Amino acid sequence: MRKLTYIDAIVEAMHEEMARDENVYVIGEDVDIKGGVWKGTVGLLEKFGAKRVRGTPISEAAFTGIATGSAMIGLRPILEIMYMPFCYVAMDQFLSQMAKLPAMSGGQIKLPITIRAQAGAGTREAAQHSQSQEAIFLHIPGFKVVMPATVYDAKGLLKAAIRDDSPVLFIEDRNLYYEAEEVPEGEWIVPLGQADVARPGKDVTVVTLGFPRRKALAAAKQLEGALDVEVIDARSLEPLDMDTIGSSVMKTGRLLVVHEAPVRCGAGAEIVRRVVAEYFDYLDAEPHVLGGANVPLPFSPVLEDACLPQVNTIVNAIHRMV
Q1: Has 187 been annotated as catalytic?
Q2: Dmax (CA) of the chain
Q3: Same fold, 2-183 and 196-321
Q4: Which of 12, 60, 270, 304 is catalytic?
Q5: Which of 17, 52, 132, 185 has the most CB atoms around its CB within 10 Å?
Q6: Which pLDDT tens digit goes with each residue over 2-53?
């Protein structure tokens, strides 16, 4: 085992995949000799050259279109979006072109594109840079959506995304970028659509998306002795591992979904819908979603924290359910 940071795991995954397949290349506005602001492409330009590591002007629609066109002719682009809200500038390319072309061509066109976009909140960057848009892409047929919350998953899920023949939105959380965990040496893959039981339990099921995994585990630790909380990291929203979530609900009879995005029309609502439709008879209490407040996130640290799920609010939500 060795210590590796979340961002270094992402860089390592790209190094391995670019060495394995010469059709894999990186393109984006935060790609340069220094690895960009987040150090998310360190060493790639020196190793693979400017032909496969392409820094671009600030024009999301343009380089998203380039990535789409190149994928149509057999390349496998890794498209880096500096902040996930910048995806809005290229929504026609994402929604009307990238997501639709495989179906519109009758499967003749494959679009193996990985979109790396960092999102999340809690870093005091105010409303325009602290958004969680996973539900928007989850609503677009043709996209796969993953949210790694550990160093191990960051590398394993990214490698799986790069090898997938569909557009995959790979959502990174900047809160985790420079935190280190112990991981194995060598290569590993985390399959898309496979949830992780981060903590087994028998009283309440808590499903998390991204960074709230840590807060849910802290809440479960705080409740030890009173309640046995099972924490499931969804990892992947599309495809969604309903077998793991459903098996847990069958055991506990209670479901709480925690994410940073606003509750209204969020991914948690879709998980609750699926559980009610498929596992209703096993529920002993109505399922709930704990998410961000329905407001643009404020810059003030105190106000931002008040708008997001915290360990104490997760504990309180579990108590109310039980």
Answers
A1: no
A2: 58
A3: yes
A4: 60
A5: 132
A6: 999 999 999 999 999 999 999 999 999 889 878 888 889 999 999 999 999 9
Annotated active-site residue in 17, 29, 80, 129: 129
Per residue in 215-259, pLDDT (tens digit) is 999 999 999 999 999 999 999 999 999 999 999 999 999 999 999
Q: Which long-range contacts (CB under 8 A, 24 or more apart) does 220-226 make?
A: 222/311, 222/315, 223/315, 223/318
CA gap 221, 299 in Å, rounded: 30
60: annotated active-site residue = yes
Query: Domain segments of the chain: what residues?
Result: 2-183, 196-321
Q: 37 Cβ partners below 8 Å, 6+ apart? A: 30, 82
Long-range residue pairs from 101-108, CB within 8 A, at least 24 positions apart, any chain: 101/68, 101/72, 102/142, 102/166, 103/141, 103/142
Cα–Cα dist 70/111, whole Å: 9
| Domain covering 2-183, topology | Rossmann fold (3.40.50)
Q: Where are any strands of DSSP class E within the chain?
A: 2-5, 24-28, 53-55, 76-81, 114-119, 144-146, 168-173, 180-183, 196-199, 204-208, 229-233, 236-238, 255-262, 288-292
